[in-house]
Design brief:
Elements lengths: L1 E5 L5 H11 L4 E6 L13 E4 L4 H9 L2 E5 L14 E4 L3 H4 L17 H20 L3 H11 L2 E4 L2 H11 L4 E4 L5 H4 L10 E4 L9 H11 L11 E4 L6 H15 L3 E4 L5 H8 L2 E6 L7 H9 L3 E4 L4 H9 L4 E2 L11 H30 L1
Parallel strand pairs: 1-2, 1-4, 2-3, 4-5, 5-6, 6-7, 8-9, 8-11, 9-10, 11-12, 12-13
Helix pairs in contact: 6-12, 8-9
């Protein structure tokens, strides 16, 4: 039996579909939620519960494998860590102040660092009073004991393994398959610019605005260019307000803010006129969105200090580096076709390797 611990979100629903297709009837999915499920469909093997469910812990004890999906809790009791597979989201590592200096993932010096710090401290108070130590420290200790980490980017797993001083075994895994998106096979056409992935400060929108004004040509009106900025996921309201003010002031209204959370179908529809995309993260983030952008023929601009850069470089993708490029140049048709071929092959190969590795673990 495989036991899965997850929350109700957009990323775990595809995981259930993948496991039921590859290993039908072998899993129980415990969704840690008291609310009506929004993203995960009803299934006979899905059980809603709290982290204190006796049934859940009994099945964890009996399970061959325990799969954890970005759940910010003690992943499991220490005696179960040897059979735990950590399905990486990123936040449980990058947003943990006991592991990463939170100021290093935010470039802008607009006072938001203090917001991060105060939120971090306030969230610890109750936990300190009850347990005598930080919940982030508890999570860090659990991560250091996990044996397997499932994620699409092996460079990210290697980096995390180095930071945690834990020899994690990488299991190739992608949360969604391209065929699930039902995307139009045509390449994007237009001159719009896609900016960031969410409303999180780690997108570094403010610093990116200063860079974009230098490279976006003055023919902005002649081609009716728009900057499309998705802000529907996460984010501090004050930060979102500052981002909107900054971009509206610089680009004179040629900006469209998307304030709703985007499904893959809506994502494709809104970005269809985007020829360029800028992801100003200093950490691994938004890799799924980047694969979609590359598939659709978009020239992607990223920072060169991320593990995403290392992955794209190894795969031989055509992309550009922020601060090293000073103009907007669309990909040629042959470059677009090359990138699409690489993305399809890599995601397909990752999925095949995931099934092979899990079959071995279950044998």
């Amino acid at each position: 039996m495989i036991v899965h611990l997850m929350t109700d979100n957009y990323y775990t629903a595809p995981a259930i579909r993948q496991f039921e297709k590859a290993f039908p009837g072998r899993s129980k999915y415990y969704v840690l939620s008291n609310s009506e499920l929004r993203y995960i469909s009803n299934h006979s093997s899905i059980i809603q519960c709290t982290a204190h469910s006796k049934e859940m812990w009994q099945n964890i004890k009996q399970a061959s494998l325990l799969c954890i999906y970005g759940v910010n809790m003690i992943f499991s009791k220490k005696k179960y860590l040897y059979k735990t597979i950590w399905f990486l989201y990123g936040g449980e590592f990058w947003n943990n102040p006991e592991i990463i200096d939170q100021n290093k993932v935010v470039l802008s010096k607009l006072g938001f660092k203090n917001t991060i710090k105060s939120n971090r401290i306030s969230s610890r108070v109750f936990y300190y009073m009850r347990y005598g130590y930080s919940p982030y420290l508890r999570l860090k200790r659990a991560l250091k004991g996990v044996k397997y980490c499932a994620f699409v980017n092996p460079f990210e797993v290697s980096y995390i393994s180095k930071v945690l001083r834990n020899e994690l075994i990488h299991i190739p895994y992608t949360y969604s398959l391209l065929e699930e998106f039902n995307m139009d096979s045509s390449f994007n056409k237009g001159c719009n610019v896609w900016v960031g992935h969410s409303a999180s400060q780690t997108n570094n929108h403010i610093d990116l605005a200063r860079y974009l004004i230098k490279i976006i040509p003055q023919q902005i009106d002649s081609c009716n260019r728009e900057l499309i900025i998705p802000l529907g996921k996460g984010g501090d309201p004050n930060y979102i307000m500052k981002v909107k003010q900054k971009y509206e002031n610089i680009f004179n209204g040629n900006v469209k803010f998307v304030d709703e959370f985007l499904s893959h179908n809506k994502l494709e529809l809104i970005m269809k006129k985007c020829e360029y995309a800028f992801m100003n993260h200093t950490r691994q983030e938004a890799l799924g969105t980047m694969f979609i952008l590359l598939y659709k023929g978009v020239r992607l601009y990223i920072r060169n200090q991320t593990t995403t850069f290392l992955l794209f470089q190894k795969l031989g993708l055509f992309f550009s580096v922020i601060d090293e490029s000073n103009e907007l140049i669309p990909l040629t048709l042959s470059q677009k076709e090359h990138n699409r071929k690489i993305v399809i092959e890599y995601i397909s190969q990752t999925h095949d390797n995931f099934i092979n590795d899990f079959s071995t673990l279950l044998a």
